[in-house]
Amino acid sequence: MRCVIDCFILIALFGTAANSEPVVLFDASNTRPMPDRLQISQPNYQQSLSLPDIPQNLDPLPVRSQALTPGLVQSRVIDRPGLDRPVFIVGYDELSLNWLRHNLEQLKRHRATGIVVNVENPDQLRQLRQAADGLAVNPVPGDKIARQLELTHYPVLISKNRIEQ
Question: pTM to 2 decimals?
Answer without folding.
Answer: 0.66
